[in-house]
Write a structure and sequence with these properties.
Layout lengths: L5 H21 L3 H9 L5 H23 L5 H24 L2 H21 L12 H15 L3 H9 L5 H26 L7 H23 L4 H25 L2
Length: 249
């Protein structure tokens, strides 16, 4: 039995549904939307491995559905740097205090959301040498918070002009990193926390429903308008996370 206040459960269900609706629309973004909001209700070391359960299912659906469009060369280019970043990230997640984890997450989300709102579209391609910083930074934030997707997206959007190929490549990348994180988190004992897996599977239908809704809307509405509204929400959420981190004892 899940022993949580009904308002907490309802809030978590709504957050997960919205996050995976955006994921269905864009192919990324579930964790960067959900984790800053879930962190107001659960410790990060609980919320991050819980979100991983949803990432596995959503990544499986998106990755397998579109795998024929993926760009394998870009995946292989990112992989070694991504693994280094993930090793660093999971070490920090285990050892660093919750206060500093919240502050780094709040600053990262605030910076990314503000940049996303203000940036102008840039389509000029970039060098493959950017795979190293993109892989390492994305891998670290993937292991820490599951929020590496936007970092991969920034890199791949300038490498893969075809949106279908980019969406498929990011989907497979997120699924692959989710498998690696599953091994790292299991070895670190995160899934031995009371109620974590029970709550994850109770909320799994919300993630699947959100993903299916987002996929249905993908070809029927401009995702940019939805994302802009989400960034405004995240600016408020990340600012409150920074405040929490600063005021924690």
């Amino acid at each position: 039995m899940i022993d949580l206040p009904w308002l907490t459960l309802l809030s978590a269900a709504l957050i997960v549904t919205v996050a995976y609706t955006v994921y269905g629309l864009t192919g990324f973004g579930a964790a960067i939307i959900a984790i800053p909001l879930l962190a107001h209700f659960f410790p990060l070391r609980f919320a991050v491995p819980m979100m991983l359960v949803f990432d596995l299912f959503a990544g499986l659906l998106l990755g397998l559905k579109n795998r024929k469009y993926l760009d394998r060369s870009e995946l292989l280019r990112l992989l070694p740097f991504l693994l280094i970043g993930m090793a660093v990230g999971v070490t920090l997640l285990v050892r660093v205090s919750e206060r500093w984890l919240l502050m780094v997450l709040g600053l990262f989300v605030l910076t990314y959301a503000s940049w996303s709102l203000l940036r102008k579209a840039v389509t000029a391609p970039i060098s493959s040498r950017w795979a190293m910083p993109a892989g390492m930074v994305g891998g670290a934030f993937t292991a820490l918070y599951g929020t590496g997707g936007p970092v991969y997206m920034i890199y791949l959007a300038r490498r893969l002009p075809d949106k279908t190929v980019m969406r498929a490549t990011i989907g497979v990348l997120i699924f692959g990193t989710a498998l690696i994180r599953l091994a790292l988190f299991t070895g670190s004992g995160f899934y031995r926390q009371d109620g974590l897996l029970l709550l994850a599977f109770a909320l799994l239908p919300c993630a699947i429903l959100g993903y299916l809704a987002g996929s249905h809307l993908h070809a029927r509405m401009p995702a940019e308008r939805v994302i802009q509204a989400v960034w405004l929400l995240l600016i408020a959420g990340s600012t409150s996370l920074l405040w929490r981190g600063l005021t924690m004892p």
